[in-house]
Structure formats: structure tokens, C-alpha cells
# Entry
Amino acid sequence: MKKHSLKRALLVAVGLSLGISLLVSAFWVFYETNHEIEELFDAELAQHGRVIDAIFSWNVLQHGSPEPGADSIVVDVDYDAPTVVHSKLGEIFVGHHYEKKIAFRVTDLKGKTLYHSHNFPNQIAAILTPGFHSFELEGSSWHLFSIQSRLSAIRVEVMQEQSIRRELSTDVSLGTLLPLQIMLPLILLLVLLIVQIYFRPLSILSRQLQSRSVASFEEISHEKTPSEILPLVDTVNSLLDRMRQSFEREKRFTADAAHELRNALAVLKAGSQTMDGSEQAVFNLGRSVDRMTHLVEQLLQLNRVDADLDPDMGDVPLPALVRAQIAELYDGMLTRGVQIHFDSKDEVVLQGNPLLLEVLIHNLLGNAAKYAAPDTEISVVLDSSTLSINNFVEPGHQMVVERLEDRFYRGQNPGTIGAGLGLGIVQLIAERHHLAVSYQCLDNNFIVQLNW
Amino acid sequence: MHILFIEDDIMLGQAVEIGLSQRGLVVDWLTDGDSGLKAMARQNYDLVLLDLGLPELSGMEVLKLARQRQITTPVIVLTAQDSQDSVVQGLKLGADDYLRKPVDINELAARIQAVTRRIAGHASNTLSDGDLILDLNQHTVSFCDATVKVSPTEFRLLEALMQTPGKLITRERLEQAMSSDIGGLSSNALEVHVHNLRRKMAPELIQVVRGVGYRLKTSGDSES
# Structure
């Protein structure tokens, strides 16, 4: 799949917008110039008409109209005179490239031509209404202005070729647009440069990430990071941190598990090698397997709890959960002659993950069931802020309360098959749920309290 | 009893085959899902013991295909998977029970017995334990060969306890079982119904675990 490039998109967008605005402004300038030039030339044409009217009216008033029947007089305007005259002073400009070629005609009121410039086309009808006219003549367009004199009985018509106007307006428009056209690539180049400069932090960031080794969880530095990509950097950093934590947990778990599994396997192997078929040997082997099974279960549970950083939370009614776990463990208690009772004074609902809280309660109750002295009673009491589990342990039972949550600590209890992980798991789940767990042992009375 | 056992692990297969044979069961052991499925279709087994983690055709697929082909042989599923999901899915697909590995041969044998007995019981539609017999069709209860008159709520309560005799059942589950009644239950309804049942049969028949729930005393309980 082709990757979407911000830089390229930005350049294309800026280039296109510039191009389009240039095109629009070119048309605009051309239209406006054309319009203004048309007006200017029209005004000039009208002025020419009025000047010619004044001159010829004066002539008519001074000398009278030409005889009826006489030929019209051709007035010669020397448009072909050189525009540059060479003199001792050098080149003198006596004309201009833009000099407009004007043709004119003077008629009497009946339409008879009295005077005309030699370039006035005689195909044009004699009488035209006063005002401006445009028409085609021998393949070129013309503008004509016609007035009826107020000074004498004559009519004046002045005309001018369209091409002159067109040429001028094109020249003016192009003259305006040319600098812009030259600037466009320059502007684009400048934009490219700016984009390159301001995208540098992003390029650096992606290079940094690419060059990382798989096991590198170092934070990405905030230095020179623009505020727009700061949230991204923060997110990546927090992700890296979580990855580092989980990586470390995995490492610790593997180390712990290897140690414990090897021990359990060693016991199994020794047991199998010393098998003499006696009932005691079979029983011992069975216990080793049970211990191994329990260990694997606990390790898997620990790993699951460890790994699940964002469990789904919900309302968990605690009394029902405690009852369900007691029911599950009850058969085991019964075989050891252990009784249990549960006092729930309040209908407590905790916010948490139901499965994790189930594991937590199961482990606490399981511990009580496992370590309770035979023929004693476990007391479980729930009130609005505490769950406490109280059981009697055998008088010889030794443990260091402070070490209970250490992984693989199981006290000095040769009779049980604990892996020493249950309370570590409890601790982990409690932390996730902001619950406090405390243990104390007074006169063989072991008390666990869970507070929220 | 004739059992089909589908398990790809040779060591586990051998151990279970020997263990079950020692307990008087006739075991046909196959190592892949495809031939297992064919055997299920060919022969009328009393029960199928199915491992979920089979290569190629998985246990779940075998179960699904078997049920699609109207093979109604009871199935116990064995799983080494951790999550509850596979168990739930297995039960949804029509498994009758499940066991998590590692399995205890004694427990496995007991479960096989329980499932086949339950299936047989469902055929006649009675639940029984010791002197207590529940007829689920007639809604009648007999205790020590005498018919006991019970209310519909009491019957449902007894039925819930009889599903797993000897197991402690929590208040919540018992109340849920009873509450198909019109209207809600009063807070001490459970105690009242338990009291009535004890009075009608024997006081020690239903044992209380204070604050937790009740269990039906079974014929297997030691006298203490």
C-alpha cells in the first residue's frame, strides 16, 4: 500500500492553491484591464470625434460647405512618418508604438461625404446613428463613433481598429502576471524548504524509533518536540514503559517459575526412581504430582493476573461472590473436618473485575481452608468496609507474617502442598483494585483483613 | 460400559486407557478427531471422552459435527486450556461435562458414572439419592418409600439441591431456583421452605452452612 505522506500532500495542496489563485487572478486582471482599456479608448475616440468636429465646423463656418456635386476632399494623415528621427542630438522619438491609427469622415446631414481620411473604408453606410458602433470589415473588427455637430450642419465619424486595443490589453495583463508566474516556482521552492525545516522533529522522531533495538524501552526525549506531537511522544513513552514493566515481569516470572518447576520436577524424578511399588511410595509420588499441578495452576494464574493490566471493571456483589467461593471449597473443608460460617451484615458491592476478585477471594478462603487446624471453624465476616477471615492454625505452624506476600514463600509447613504464590496473587489483585490486605497471627489465630 | 476416548497425547492416552480399564470400563482409544468422529457414527458408545486440543480436526469441531449429525452420545470434554471460554463454548456445543487437565483418574471415572447416570435418569426423568426420589415429570417426591406432599416452590428447591447431592449450594442459587414463583421472595423464604422440607422428611436431610447456603446430606456422607 502506498503510504500517505504529509509533506507531499502539503506541497501538492499549497502548489494547487497557488496555481488556481494565480489563474483566477490572471483572468480577473485580463478582464478588468480589457474593460478599462475599452473605456479609455472609447473616450479617446469620442474626443477625437469632437476635435475633428470643431476643426471642420470652424472650416465650414469660415469657408462654407464644399459645392454640391463637388468631390469629397481627402485629408491625408501621414501615419507612415517615421517615429524616430535621427538628428545631431541623437535619436529623437516623435511617435509611439502605441500610436493609434484613426480614420475619420465628415459628411453633411444628408450623408454626403465632405472630407475623409484616405484610410476611411468607403463601404460603410453613409448615415449612422450618433454613438458607438462595432463591426467587422475585411476580416478585422472596428470601433466607430458618430456625432452630429452642434456647431455646423455636419456629421463626424471616427473609427479605430480593434486589434490595437486587444494588443494593448494583452500586453498590460501579461505584464502584470509575468512576475507572478516567475514567482510561483520560487514560492513553491520556499514552501518545500519551510516544510522540510518544520517537519524535521517528525523525521527525527521516526528515525529514533526505527533505530531502536527490540529490547530498548528507553523514553523518547521531549527535547525540541513541538507541542503538536507531544501527546504522541507521551503515548509512545507510556507504552514503552508498560512494555518495559511487562518485559521485566516476564523475565522475573520465567526465573521464578524455572526455579520452582525444577524443584518440583526433581522431587518427582527422585520419587519415580525410588519407586519400590510400596503404598507409601505411590502415595508420595501422587503428592508430588499434586504439588506440581498446584504449582503450574498458580503460575498460570499469576501470569494471567500480571499480564492483564486493564481488566474490565463492573459492580461485583461481594456476599454472593464469597458464598460461591465457600461452596466451591466446601468439599475440601469437609474432608478435613473444618467448618465455616459467613456473617454478612451489609450488602457490599465492590467496583472491580469479577474474575479477578473471584481469584482473590478464592485464594484467601483457600488458604484458610488449607491451613485451618482439623475440627476447627473458619469465621468469615463482611461489613461495609472490611472482609475478615479468621481461622485457627496448628500450634506448630510457623510463618513470618511479613513474608507472606513474597512469591514462593510458604512457611514451614511440611504437610501442605502450597506453591507460595496464592497471597502474592492476592496482593497483585488487591493493588489493582485499591484494596488493602493485612495479615496477623495471634495465639494460633490467623486473621486476614481486606479493606476498601 | 463402552467408552470412546479421543486423545492425541500417547502417554496420557495410555495412562487413561489403563486407568479406566482397571475400573471396569471398556475403552476404545483413538488419536485423531476424524477417525473419532467416524467411530462415533459407526458404533453406539455409552460415552465419548473428548480432548479439545486435537491436531487438524479439533475437539470442538468433532463435537459440533457430531451434534450436527444427530449423534447424541454423551460427551465429556477434556481441556488443558486456561480460559473459561473454551469450557463455556464446549458446553454450548452440547458437551455434558468437562474436566480440566491434569485429570484424576478416580474423578474421571466418577464423572463418567455421573454423566451416564444422569442421562439415564433424564430418560426416566427422575433424580434420586439414597431414600429420596424426585419424579420430574409427575412433580412427586418420595422419601423412604412414602410419598411426601410438597409445594411447587419446595419441589424446585429440592430439585436444585438434588442436582448435585452433597454439594454446598449458595443462598443465591437456591433463591434463583425458587424464584420462578409469581412475585418476589421474602427475605426468609428460603429458611421457611427448608424448615418445611425438613419437617416433612428428616431434620438432618438438609444441612445448613451458616451464612452461605445448604447442602443435601447424601448416602455417601460419613456419620459425624
